[in-house]
């Protein structure tokens, strides 16, 4: 049975109930989950599953084949069919949401204004990093400054689903770093109104105001035509 992906529909679910459908050596599979698995450039959520008085720490969530496995510290006492309560480590998740939406704004400015592409990136709760195909190091702090101006405007971030054929008509909908599997019939679209629109699987804030202030940690020279930007969000 395929797990219902609650996190794809609503990034703000912190607690949910679910049924254990399968136990595997590394953890459990649920009939539905709000835990975002590792992928799309984001670290996985962590948290806990509660059964009666027992707490099972969720240390990682990941795809194994097409199954979403919740890796648990211990499995003893858990059985298939158990009804559990899932709790997301919200502070950690919310920081990744803020950084993730920030990364889309940064990518959009880089591409539309400076013709710069992001060739790879990663988001952790503490910071994000992105690789740009640019020569000029000074361009990146400038892009972050412009991203802050946009974030401050309090722009709505919309998440919706479109049939593949329709989604593919949107210019620039698939960015290099985050490709959608072509076999997917329905694409999840994340739109920062008037700024950026792309196919994307990860959690986002619902308004750019929630990002706070984006701050550059450092810019690294990674060789010819490759600069790496590290940034975080505050407060
Ligand atoms: Zn994304």
TrEMBL record:
Pfam families xref list: tRNA-synt_2c, tRNA_SAD
GO biological process, one term: alanyl-tRNA aminoacylation
Molecular-function GO term, any one: metal ion binding
EC number: 3.1.1.-
GO CC term, one of those recorded: cytoplasm
Family matches, as InterPro entries: Ala-tRNA-synth_IIc_core (IPR018165), Ala-tRNA-synth_IIc_N (IPR018164), Alanyl-tRNA_Edit-Domain (IPR053424), Alanyl-tRNA_Editing_Enzymes (IPR051335), Thr/Ala-tRNA-synth_IIc_edit (IPR018163), Transl_B-barrel_sf (IPR009000), tRNA_SAD (IPR012947)
Compartments, record wording: Cytoplasm
Domain (Alanyl-transfer RNA synthetases family profile) ranges: 1-235
Zinc is among the record's keywords: yes
Signal peptide feature range: none
Cofactor(s) needed by this chain: Zn(2+)
Enzyme category, top tier: hydrolase
The organism's place on the tree of life at top rank: Archaea
Assigned keywords, A-Z: Cytoplasm, Hydrolase, Metal-binding, Zinc
Name listed for the protein in its UniProt record: Ala-tRNA(Pro) hydrolase
């Amino acid at each position: 049975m395929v797990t219902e992906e609650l996190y794809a529909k609503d990034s703000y679910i912190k607690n949910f109930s679910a049924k254990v459908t399968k136990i595997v050596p590394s953890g459990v599979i649920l009939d539905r989950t709000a835990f975002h698995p590792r992928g799309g450039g984001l670290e996985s959520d962590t948290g806990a599953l509660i059964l009666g008085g027992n707490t099972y720490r969720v240390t990682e969530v990941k795809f194994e084949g097409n199954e979403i496995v919740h890796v648990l510290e211990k499995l003893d006492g858990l059985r298939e069919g158990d009804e559990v309560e899932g709790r997301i480590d919200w502070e950690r998740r919310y920081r990744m949401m803020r950084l993730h939406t920030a990364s889309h704004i940064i990518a959009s400015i880089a591409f539309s204004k400076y013709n710069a592409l992001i060739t790879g990136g990663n988001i952790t709760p503490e910071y994000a990093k992105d690789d740009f195909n640019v020569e000029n190091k000074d361009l990146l702090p400038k892009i972050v400054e412009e991203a802050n101006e946009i974030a401050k405007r309090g722009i709505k971030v919309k998440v919706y689903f479109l049939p593949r054929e329709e989604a593919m008509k949107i210019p620039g909908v698939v960015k290099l770093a985050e490709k959608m599997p072509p076999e997917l019939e329905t694409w999840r679209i994340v739109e920062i109104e008037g700024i950026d629109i792309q196919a994307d699987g990860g959690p986002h804030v619902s308004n750019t105001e929630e990002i706070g202030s984006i701050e550059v940690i450092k810019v690294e020279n990674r060789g010819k035509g490759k600069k790496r930007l590290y940034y975080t969000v505050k407060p």
